[in-house]
Specification:
Elements (H helix, E strand, L loop, with lengths): L2 E3 L8 E6 L5 E8 L2 H19 L5 H10 L5 H17 L10 H12 L5 H18 L12 H13 L4 H20 L18 H6 L5 H9 L4 H13 L3 H5 L6 E2 L4 E4 L13 E4 L2 H8 L23 H11 L6 E2 L9 E2 L5 H12 L4 H8 L4 H6 L5 H8 L19
Antiparallel strand pairs: 1-2, 2-3, 4-5, 5-6, 7-8
């Protein structure tokens, strides 16, 4: 058994002493004030030394010892790993690579710099830091010790605080990517985040959001306070993209000769390379662009400089236009302190209107998804509201059966 000693006049920590594989004495501070925990650390390292001396120490057994270590100071853990690798080499085996969860996550974030958009990197950083904070002392232990329960606890806490299912799923996907990189580089054996399933998006929110009616769209255009706002609403209906992307459109993006719009949206799937979106121009859009005496520069010089959210942001300004047009919407309060109020109608509802009007005009889902830029039928279904008249026309296409209301029905005896 390893021996412990402490110089009460110089340190409050217990130090360990034991014979290494070559029988030379090894001394190191456990950084533990608790003698029992210090003894556990010392005995595990001394055990590895004895196994190396007899040639029985393997990388797998070293990893097992590291996993059994009680919480220790990160610098001490690094020192212990150096000892264990030295023992492995003494036994004729290959040294192992190990990293803490904190060290790996920070290295992963550094690797994302330059590879992702600044906004995405900022979101990754906030998420990873929150995850590490939730782990407590475990963040400074081997990444191999991360469990599915750790990830689930973090995800479920977000949901309880009011974060939407979509945001919780995005957090889980980010952790899957981060922890998966540790597996790829041999620092961990399993990606514990992959064991969790994505949350189903609540039908309560899905059914709560609505598209605008055609009458409401016309009312919005009529009550728009400026030409820029009128044209932005028109673009929302005929292009079907998000408010942030539309507000940044440039006249250069519109090819008047080919009657197509070509632009790079600001919001893309995580990790995907920027790609150009090509959309045919509706005759209304063609006339709108032709009416401009400019061919270059922002389509919306004033609105493109404003933020989307916040006081004075485009979202709140659009809500004022809704109020002026007499369009009422319902509000769903947040489920927790981190949740946000959800409105049944907003500028984003024009995207639903775009998709729903195409559906009610018998445009196939495949084409609708192509035009709106969606890869999932399930997501597209959320943006589709079929009108009663469209359903009636569909049901009326069934053949008419010959039914005689006066025909007597003979029931055979049982």
């Amino acid at each position: 058994m390893a021996s412990l000693h402490r110089n009460s006049g110089k340190s409050r920590f217990w130090s360990a002493s034991f014979a290494g594989p070559d029988k030379k004495q090894i001394h190191f501070s456990t950084k533990h004030e608790d003698k029992k925990l210090a003894q556990e650390v010392a005995d595990l390292i001394e055990k590895a030394a004895r196994m190396a001396r007899t040639g029985l120490l393997t990388p797998e057994k070293v990893q097992s010892i590291l996993d059994l270590l009680p919480p220790v100071d990160p610098d001490v853990r690094q020192k212990i790993r150096e000892y264990l690798n030295r023992f492995l080499r003494f036994a004729g085996a290959e040294a192992i690579s190990e990293t803490t969860t904190r060290a790996w996550c920070q290295a992963w974030l550094t690797d994302q710099e330059g590879a992702t958009a600044p906004g995405t990197l900022q979101r990754y950083t906030a998420l990873i830091n929150e995850f590490l904070k939730g782990l407590g002392e475990k963040a400074d232990r081997s990444i191999r010790l991360i469990s599915t329960f750790d990830v689930q606890t973090f995800r479920d806490k977000m949901v309880k605080q009011g974060v939407s299912d979509s945001s919780a799923n995005l957090a889980l996907k980010t952790l899957r990517t981060c922890l998966g990189g540790a597996v790829d580089q041999g620092y961990s054996t399993y990606n514990r985040a992959k064991a969790l399933k994505l949350r189903s998006k609540g039908t309560r929110i899905r059914n709560f959001k609505k598209p605008f009616t055609n009458a409401q769209v016309n009312a919005l255009i009529a009550h728009a306070p400026s030409r820029e706002w009128r044209e932005l609403i028109v673009a929302g209906y005929y292009i079907g993209d998000r408010l942030g992307n539309l507000a940044k459109l440039r006249l250069d993006d519109f090819n008047r000769e080919k009657a197509i719009l070509e632009y790079v949206p600001g919001k893309l799937k995580s990790g995907s390379a920027p790609k150009t979106v090509t959309v045919p121009m509706h005759p209304v859009i063609i006339d709108m662009i032709a009416a401009h005496d400019r061919t270059t520069g922002p389509l919306f010089p004033t609105l493109s400089k404003k933020s989307i959210s916040g006081v004075g942001g485009l979202s709140l300004l659009f809500r004022k236009i809704m109020d002026a047009a007499g369009i009422k919407c319902e509000a769903q309060k947040p489920a927790g302190p981190r949740g946000r109020t959800v409105y049944s109608l907003s500028f984003h509802a024009l995207r639903r209107t775009f998709n729903s009007d195409l559906a009610n005009s018998n445009v196939s889902q495949e084409l609708r998804m192509k035009l709106i830029g969606q890869a999932s039928c399930d997501v597209n279904d959320m943006y589709t509201s079929i009108e009663e008249e469209t359903l009636r026309e569909a049901i009326n296409k069934l053949p008419h059966l010959k039914v005689n209301p006066n025909q007597k029905t003979e029931i055979p005896p049982q």
